[in-house]
Amino acid sequence: MLSFLITRLAGACLVVFGVVSLVFMLIHLVPGDPVEMMLGETAPAADREALRHSLGLDLPLYEQFTRYLHGLLHLDPGTSLHSQRPVSEILMER
Q1: 49-65 residue pLDDT tens
Q2: Please, are residues 54 and 46 in contact by the beta-carbon 8 Å criterion?
Q3: DSSP assignment, residue 5?
Q4: Which residues are bridge partners to 86 per DSSP?
Q5: Please, where are the H alpha helices in the chain?
Q6: Is the predicted pLDDT of residue 81 greater than 80, yes or no?
Q7: Largest Cα–Cα separation, the chain
Q8: Cα-to-chain-centroid distance, residue 34
């Protein structure tokens, strides 16, 4: 019975990891630049680079993924790109 539960738990963990990985990749495959959406296309290059750096979008993809996983494991969904507020606060309001 215990081995059955361990097998099921391991399978569930693999499925969750696969879904999280797929969501991360789909977010990065969506066309458009979130920085340009936030600041507009006419924003100075220095402002765009500063925002990219503050959001971590200038990091390599594997480092962005590890930060994403770290946030999920610590139940920290991050900051909303639209309102610049923590997503957990927005969820608690709803």
Answers
A1: 998 898 888 999 999 99
A2: no
A3: H
A4: 79
A5: 2-29, 34-39, 45-55, 61-73, 87-93
A6: no
A7: 62
A8: 12
